[in-house]
Amino acid sequence: xxxxxxxxxxxxxxxxxxxxxxxxxxxxxxxxxxxxxxxxxxxxxxxxxxxxxxxxxxxxxxxxxxxxxxxxxxxxxxxxxxxxxxxxxxxxxxxxxxxxxxxxxxxxxxxxxxxxxxxxxxxxxxxxxxxxxxxxxxxxxxxxxxxxxxxxxxxxxxxxxxxxxxxxxxxxxxxxxxxxxxxxxxxxxxxxxxxxxxxxxxxxxxxxxxxxxxxxxxxxxxxxxxxxxxxxxxxxxxxxx
Length: 241
Fold this sequence. Notes:
- The longest helix has 22 residues, at 3-24.
- The protein contains one helix and 16 strands.
- The protein is 9% helix and 46% strand.
- It has one helix spanning 3-24; strands spanning 31-39, 54-59, 67-71, 77-83, 86-92, 100-107, 110-113, 116-118, 122-132, 135-144, 150-159, 178-186, 193-198, 212-222, 232-233, 237-240.
- The chain is mostly beta strands.
- Mean pLDDT is 90; it is low at 1-22.
- The chain is globular and about 60 Å long.
- Strands 11, 12, 14, 15 and 16 form a five-stranded antiparallel beta sheet that branches. Strands 1, 4, 7 and 8 form a four-stranded mixed beta sheet that branches.
């Protein structure tokens, strides 16, 4: 290899090394955020599906800012420990509440806390989930977030861990764990609904003893012009078999 080729290769390696060092020296995330999604009427957490609902976030200061997703836990809480301080636009959309957006949310270095008040499509009122013998029974009433909201489906979800919901659940055979309404029904707060699961008929799903199983009541709204509609949920109930 002649001297000229050696010099070119050396210069290329030095340039590559300098470029790599410049990229590696960028500052990392310097902020954290946590908060809650709260029903603006009741002040209660709005439970969601961890696989289906998230905050849509855009960090400002860029010519074409890209959407980021911050997951919302099934409790209605969220937390992100790896973000950059700055100014953000934050949206909740395609979830189980009317869309909301807050612009120019300033997040400082270190810890931040930001709650969002929303109107859920449906509130599950006075939920009860109990087990007697082989039967798990859920009773509840419903309330629409607005007068236009109608009811499409109700379901008692069950699974072997706390992430139970529409996207993570047992497929049950009894048929009494869900009910669909076609056409969508008017929501009447005075009506008490009952759903059941026969754990003996679905023994393949409930095969273990001395084990916790997790249950949530879900109600799916029918409402137009709000994007994708997700299930609203009651709080999680744990039953040991």
